Amino acid sequence: xxxxxxxxxxxxxxxxxxxxxxxxxxxxxxxxxxxxxxxxxxxxxxxxxxxxxxxxxxxxxxxxxxxxxxxxxxxxxxxxxxxxxxxxxxxxxxxxxxxxxxxxxxxxxxxxxxxxxxxxxxxxxxxxxx
Length: 130
Fold this sequence. Notes:
Layout: H1 6-11, E1 15-19, E2 23-28, H2 36-58, E3 62-66, E4 70-75, E5 78-83, E6 89-95, E7 98-104, H3 109-119
Parallel strand pairs: 1-4, 2-3
Antiparallel strand pairs: 2-6, 4-5, 6-7
Helix pairs in contact: 2-3
């Protein structure tokens, strides 16, 4: 499990994302303790994020990334602030009319697509509708 370097994350600027349709924000925080496990986890996270981006776009889902442990999302006239607690990476799923969902840790592109389909109530190819 990757931990946030709170001193480094406190200095980082806060990204703001305007949400107009189903969106996944993949977040990871640089400046974590350097060791083989953290390097491997971050490498896996970046690989799966890259693979997920294309698949999400094809499904009509916006896929964004940030290298910050905190950010703001704006949906319509409402604004929300998110700050990760101790965990270095994860995914923030949000869409107009749907409560945000946060999933911490590294997920494969298949697992992330399944989570997005459930969160955004999408029908995946080969699955029956609701």
